[in-house]
From TrEMBL:
Principal location listed in the UniProt entry: membrane
Transmembrane segments: 21-43, 63-82, 89-114, 134-156
Localization of this protein: Membrane
Organism classification: Bacteria, Bacillati, Actinomycetota, Coriobacteriia, Eggerthellales
CC terms in the record's Gene Ontology section: plasma membrane
CDD domains, sorted: EcfT
Protein name according to UniProt: Energy-coupling factor transporter transmembrane protein EcfT
Amino acid sequence: MELLQTGAVERTVRLDPRTKLVLLVSVSTVLLIGGNGTIMDAARTIMLLAPFGLLAVSGRRGAAAALLAAYAGAQALSALVVPNVDGPLNFLIVASCMIAARFLPTIATAYFVFATTTVSEFMAAAERVHAPQWLVIPLSVLFRFFPTLGVEARAIGSAMRMRGLRVGSAGPVKLVECRLVPLITCAVQIGEDLSAASLTRGLGAPVRRTNVCEIGFGPADAAVLATCAACLAVLAASSLGWTVG
Protein backbone atom coordinates (compact mmCIF):
# COMPACT_ATOMS: atom_id res chain seq x y z
CA MET A 1 0.00 0.00 0.00
CA GLU A 2 2.82 2.42 0.83
CA LEU A 3 4.23 2.06 -2.67
CA LEU A 4 1.45 4.14 -4.19
CA GLN A 5 0.81 6.53 -1.34
CA THR A 6 1.12 10.22 -2.06
CA GLY A 7 4.09 11.55 -0.15
CA ALA A 8 5.41 15.07 0.20
CA VAL A 9 7.83 15.97 -2.56
CA GLU A 10 10.63 18.41 -1.82
CA ARG A 11 10.51 21.32 -4.24
CA THR A 12 10.84 25.06 -4.27
CA VAL A 13 9.17 25.55 -7.64
CA ARG A 14 5.67 24.23 -8.26
CA LEU A 15 4.58 23.38 -11.78
CA ASP A 16 1.43 21.67 -12.92
CA PRO A 17 2.06 18.08 -14.13
CA ARG A 18 0.64 19.03 -17.54
CA THR A 19 3.23 21.81 -17.82
CA LYS A 20 6.00 19.35 -16.99
CA LEU A 21 4.87 16.95 -19.70
CA VAL A 22 4.73 19.77 -22.25
CA LEU A 23 8.25 20.76 -21.20
CA LEU A 24 9.47 17.17 -21.60
CA VAL A 25 8.04 16.92 -25.12
CA SER A 26 9.39 20.37 -26.06
CA VAL A 27 12.93 19.68 -24.84
CA SER A 28 13.17 16.34 -26.62
CA THR A 29 11.63 17.70 -29.83
CA VAL A 30 13.77 20.83 -30.10
CA LEU A 31 17.04 19.11 -29.23
CA LEU A 32 16.49 16.00 -31.34
CA ILE A 33 15.16 17.64 -34.50
CA GLY A 34 17.43 20.69 -34.49
CA GLY A 35 17.35 23.54 -37.00
CA ASN A 36 19.41 26.42 -38.35
CA GLY A 37 19.60 30.13 -37.62
CA THR A 38 20.61 32.41 -34.79
CA ILE A 39 17.17 32.42 -33.16
CA MET A 40 17.02 28.63 -33.50
CA ASP A 41 20.36 28.37 -31.71
CA ALA A 42 18.96 30.55 -28.92
CA ALA A 43 15.84 28.36 -28.67
CA ARG A 44 18.01 25.25 -28.52
CA THR A 45 20.13 26.79 -25.77
CA ILE A 46 17.04 27.66 -23.73
CA MET A 47 15.66 24.13 -24.05
CA LEU A 48 19.10 22.77 -23.17
CA LEU A 49 19.55 24.78 -19.97
CA ALA A 50 15.91 24.68 -18.78
CA PRO A 51 15.96 21.16 -17.24
CA PHE A 52 19.24 21.76 -15.39
CA GLY A 53 17.95 25.08 -14.05
CA LEU A 54 14.66 23.55 -12.91
CA LEU A 55 16.49 20.73 -11.17
CA ALA A 56 18.70 23.25 -9.39
CA VAL A 57 15.84 25.47 -8.18
CA SER A 58 13.83 22.42 -7.09
CA GLY A 59 16.52 21.54 -4.57
CA ARG A 60 18.35 18.90 -6.61
CA ARG A 61 21.57 20.79 -7.27
CA GLY A 62 23.72 17.66 -7.07
CA ALA A 63 21.78 15.90 -9.83
CA ALA A 64 21.72 19.06 -11.93
CA ALA A 65 25.49 19.54 -11.57
CA ALA A 66 26.22 15.88 -12.35
CA LEU A 67 24.06 15.81 -15.48
CA LEU A 68 25.37 19.17 -16.67
CA ALA A 69 28.96 18.00 -16.09
CA ALA A 70 28.27 14.84 -18.10
CA TYR A 71 26.86 16.95 -20.94
CA ALA A 72 29.82 19.33 -20.85
CA GLY A 73 32.21 16.36 -20.76
CA ALA A 74 30.61 14.85 -23.84
CA GLN A 75 30.88 18.14 -25.71
CA ALA A 76 34.51 18.62 -24.64
CA LEU A 77 35.39 15.06 -25.63
CA SER A 78 33.82 15.59 -29.03
CA ALA A 79 35.66 18.88 -29.59
CA LEU A 80 39.10 17.96 -28.25
CA VAL A 81 39.55 14.22 -28.76
CA VAL A 82 37.68 13.44 -31.97
CA PRO A 83 39.96 15.52 -34.28
CA ASN A 84 43.00 13.60 -33.00
CA VAL A 85 41.58 10.06 -33.30
CA ASP A 86 40.98 8.02 -36.45
CA GLY A 87 39.35 4.76 -37.35
CA PRO A 88 36.72 2.85 -35.39
CA LEU A 89 37.61 4.68 -32.17
CA ASN A 90 36.70 7.98 -33.81
CA PHE A 91 33.30 6.63 -34.83
CA LEU A 92 32.71 5.22 -31.34
CA ILE A 93 33.55 8.52 -29.62
CA VAL A 94 31.49 10.58 -32.08
CA ALA A 95 28.45 8.30 -31.71
CA SER A 96 28.70 8.23 -27.90
CA CYS A 97 29.11 12.00 -27.61
CA MET A 98 26.25 12.66 -30.02
CA ILE A 99 23.89 10.36 -28.13
CA ALA A 100 24.89 11.93 -24.80
CA ALA A 101 24.50 15.49 -26.10
CA ARG A 102 21.09 14.75 -27.57
CA PHE A 103 19.56 12.73 -24.74
CA LEU A 104 21.08 14.03 -21.49
CA PRO A 105 18.85 17.15 -21.37
CA THR A 106 15.81 14.96 -22.01
CA ILE A 107 16.94 12.59 -19.25
CA ALA A 108 17.36 15.58 -16.92
CA THR A 109 13.83 16.77 -17.77
CA ALA A 110 12.37 13.30 -17.18
CA TYR A 111 14.17 13.11 -13.84
CA PHE A 112 12.71 16.48 -12.87
CA VAL A 113 9.21 15.29 -13.80
CA PHE A 114 9.49 12.04 -11.83
CA ALA A 115 11.20 13.63 -8.82
CA THR A 116 8.73 16.51 -8.35
CA THR A 117 5.40 14.86 -9.21
CA THR A 118 3.39 12.59 -6.96
CA VAL A 119 1.14 9.83 -8.23
CA SER A 120 -2.01 11.66 -7.14
CA GLU A 121 -0.94 14.87 -8.90
CA PHE A 122 -0.25 13.00 -12.10
CA MET A 123 -3.55 11.14 -12.03
CA ALA A 124 -5.48 14.31 -11.21
CA ALA A 125 -3.86 16.08 -14.16
CA ALA A 126 -4.54 13.10 -16.43
CA GLU A 127 -8.21 13.14 -15.47
CA ARG A 128 -8.39 16.87 -16.25
CA VAL A 129 -7.29 16.19 -19.85
CA HIS A 130 -9.47 13.03 -20.08
CA ALA A 131 -6.53 10.71 -20.73
CA PRO A 132 -7.52 7.04 -21.23
CA GLN A 133 -7.08 4.65 -18.31
CA TRP A 134 -4.91 2.26 -20.32
CA LEU A 135 -2.33 5.05 -20.55
CA VAL A 136 -2.77 6.63 -17.11
CA ILE A 137 -2.41 3.48 -15.01
CA PRO A 138 0.94 2.23 -16.44
CA LEU A 139 2.41 5.72 -16.22
CA SER A 140 1.22 6.18 -12.65
CA VAL A 141 2.88 2.88 -11.73
CA LEU A 142 6.12 4.08 -13.36
CA PHE A 143 6.08 7.15 -11.13
CA ARG A 144 6.63 4.81 -8.17
CA PHE A 145 8.65 2.08 -9.91
CA PHE A 146 11.84 4.02 -10.68
CA PRO A 147 12.15 5.78 -7.27
CA THR A 148 11.58 2.48 -5.47
CA LEU A 149 14.10 0.73 -7.71
CA GLY A 150 16.60 3.50 -6.97
CA VAL A 151 16.20 2.93 -3.23
CA GLU A 152 16.79 -0.80 -3.71
CA ALA A 153 19.86 -0.13 -5.88
CA ARG A 154 21.37 2.09 -3.17
CA ALA A 155 20.66 -0.58 -0.56
CA ILE A 156 22.41 -3.20 -2.70
CA GLY A 157 25.38 -0.87 -3.13
CA SER A 158 25.59 -0.32 0.63
CA ALA A 159 25.51 -4.07 1.24
CA MET A 160 28.32 -4.59 -1.30
CA ARG A 161 30.49 -1.92 0.32
CA MET A 162 29.89 -3.40 3.74
CA ARG A 163 31.25 -6.72 2.44
CA GLY A 164 34.23 -5.04 0.79
CA LEU A 165 32.95 -5.52 -2.77
CA ARG A 166 33.48 -2.43 -4.89
CA VAL A 167 33.10 -1.78 -8.60
CA GLY A 168 36.86 -1.52 -9.13
CA SER A 169 37.91 -4.44 -6.94
CA ALA A 170 35.20 -6.98 -7.75
CA GLY A 171 35.47 -8.90 -11.00
CA PRO A 172 32.78 -8.75 -13.68
CA VAL A 173 31.28 -12.11 -12.67
CA LYS A 174 31.15 -11.13 -9.01
CA LEU A 175 29.70 -7.74 -9.92
CA VAL A 176 26.89 -9.36 -11.91
CA GLU A 177 26.25 -11.88 -9.16
CA CYS A 178 26.15 -9.36 -6.30
CA ARG A 179 24.56 -6.34 -7.97
CA LEU A 180 22.77 -7.13 -11.22
CA VAL A 181 21.01 -10.33 -10.16
CA PRO A 182 19.58 -8.85 -6.91
CA LEU A 183 18.55 -5.71 -8.80
CA ILE A 184 16.64 -7.75 -11.40
CA THR A 185 14.98 -9.74 -8.64
CA CYS A 186 13.99 -6.50 -6.87
CA ALA A 187 12.61 -5.05 -10.12
CA VAL A 188 10.35 -8.08 -10.62
CA GLN A 189 9.16 -7.94 -7.00
CA ILE A 190 8.54 -4.19 -7.17
CA GLY A 191 6.43 -4.65 -10.31
CA GLU A 192 4.31 -7.29 -8.60
CA ASP A 193 3.89 -5.19 -5.44
CA LEU A 194 2.90 -2.11 -7.44
CA SER A 195 0.35 -4.08 -9.44
CA ALA A 196 -1.21 -5.42 -6.22
CA ALA A 197 -1.14 -1.97 -4.62
CA SER A 198 -2.77 -0.35 -7.65
CA LEU A 199 -5.62 -2.88 -7.59
CA THR A 200 -6.04 -2.42 -3.84
CA ARG A 201 -6.27 1.35 -4.19
CA GLY A 202 -8.88 1.04 -6.92
CA LEU A 203 -6.91 2.25 -9.94
CA GLY A 204 -8.90 1.45 -13.05
CA ALA A 205 -12.23 1.39 -11.23
CA PRO A 206 -15.21 2.63 -13.28
CA VAL A 207 -16.08 5.33 -10.72
CA ARG A 208 -14.49 8.77 -10.73
CA ARG A 209 -11.39 8.99 -8.55
CA THR A 210 -11.19 11.65 -5.82
CA ASN A 211 -8.00 13.59 -5.13
CA VAL A 212 -6.81 15.53 -2.09
CA CYS A 213 -3.94 17.21 -3.94
CA GLU A 214 -4.24 20.64 -5.54
CA ILE A 215 -3.14 21.22 -9.12
CA GLY A 216 -3.54 24.20 -11.40
CA PHE A 217 -1.69 26.69 -13.53
CA GLY A 218 0.19 29.63 -12.06
CA PRO A 219 2.64 32.30 -13.21
CA ALA A 220 5.50 29.78 -13.39
CA ASP A 221 3.39 27.51 -15.60
CA ALA A 222 2.55 30.42 -17.90
CA ALA A 223 6.24 31.32 -18.26
CA VAL A 224 7.28 27.72 -19.01
CA LEU A 225 4.43 27.13 -21.47
CA ALA A 226 5.12 30.42 -23.28
CA THR A 227 8.81 29.53 -23.58
CA CYS A 228 8.01 26.06 -24.90
CA ALA A 229 5.52 27.47 -27.41
CA ALA A 230 8.02 30.05 -28.65
CA CYS A 231 10.79 27.47 -29.07
CA LEU A 232 8.49 25.05 -30.89
CA ALA A 233 7.27 27.88 -33.16
CA VAL A 234 10.88 28.73 -34.03
CA LEU A 235 11.58 25.06 -34.72
CA ALA A 236 8.50 24.79 -36.97
CA ALA A 237 9.52 27.91 -38.90
CA SER A 238 13.06 26.58 -39.33
CA SER A 239 11.78 23.17 -40.48
CA LEU A 240 9.57 24.84 -43.11
CA GLY A 241 12.59 26.63 -44.53
CA TRP A 242 11.71 30.08 -43.26
CA THR A 243 14.55 32.37 -42.30
CA VAL A 244 14.90 32.32 -38.51
CA GLY A 245 17.67 34.64 -37.39
